Structure formats: C-alpha cells, structure tokens
Amino acid sequence: MAQKYFWDDKVILVVEDDTSSSLLLQAILSRTGARLLFAEDGESAVTLIENQSEIDMVLMDIRLKGLNGLEATSRIKQISPNTPIIAQTACAIIGDMESCYKAGCNAYLAKPINTQTLLETIDYYFKKSAVQDLLDTAVFTN
Question: 139: pLDDT confidence band, cut at 50, 70 and 90?
C-alpha cells in the first residue's frame, strides 16, 4: 500500500500524545521514506516549527494536554502559513471539523485512521505544495 508513496525528501512532524497512535503512524509512514519528527504536545510542536524550517507537513492530534491541537495549529500557521496541517482526532464531535478548518488545518481525518486515506491526503498536499512552489518560482515572459 505505502510502496507507491516515496517521500524521502520530506519531513513530517507528528504531533501525538498517545503512544499507540504514534507507533501506528510511524509504522505507516516509515515505508514512505519520509523523515519523521515527533512532538507529544502542542507547545513542543510550535517550538519544532520555530526551530526546524525544513518541516514539510504536520499531522496534528487535536486533543492534546496543555496547548491543544487547535491552538498549536493557529500558532504554527502564524509562523509557517504554507505548511499543510492535517488534523486527526479520536473524539470526532459535531463542529470539530469546522473548528479545525477555522484554526488553519488543511484537512481533517477522524480516528481510527484509514491508512490509504491518510497516505492519499498527505500525497495530495505534497503535490499541491510542489505545484505552488513551481508557480512561485516561475518566470513568465511574453
């Protein structure tokens, strides 16, 4: 399944306070070649974004102790507005998706995470970022 995704030039920050969920995401994403960074809370995630400019994407758990995922997302978007953030939550309740988008998340996935949906969503945003990079650097002449 993950064999068709090859992101050896990408860095993904996984923000997750549940060890089982972190291990599952690591198992899924390790087959893609992406470099993975981990943060157990929102404050650590913001600090990593401030200090590691090479982070290409964030997988953000919404229900975190301390600085929750929505607050962390808002702060990350202030620091790095073009970094895609995919929200993930086990406590999907009415209004959660809307709150995630308002905070700055680009996508929303309910747990348990469907592996194929996760990989397709990540791939979509990596491709979208690549196209935007090309457009930003393109020189148009008449």
Answer: low
